[in-house]
Write a structure and sequence with these properties.
24% of the residues lie in helices and 20% in strands. By secondary structure, the protein is of the alpha+beta class. The chain has one domain. Strands 2-1-3-4 form a 4-stranded antiparallel sheet. Helix 1 packs across helix 3. It is globular and about 30 Å long.
Length: 92
Amino acid sequence: MSQSPTTFRGESSGVGDAGWNDASALHRRNDGGGVLAGLKAVRHGTLAELIRFILTLPEADRADYEIEKSGDHRLAIGEILKLAKRPDFPAA
């Protein structure tokens, strides 16, 4: 699995945006992933939409979810919160 350099640790690669409009899927942490991971998604949307959704959850529940970005990298809560704080994070 490759990791997207534009979102790794929530840092910018300096090559543009973080792919805010990339197709992404929300998963429960530790759902097993694998070949059928797409069927286990809780919600689909763009990266920005799913980050906004995570931010609406109670803080105690946020760590229970991960965002799979474009099928190649899962972002845990630490990366999600760093991305949400970036100055180029799109407004709702």
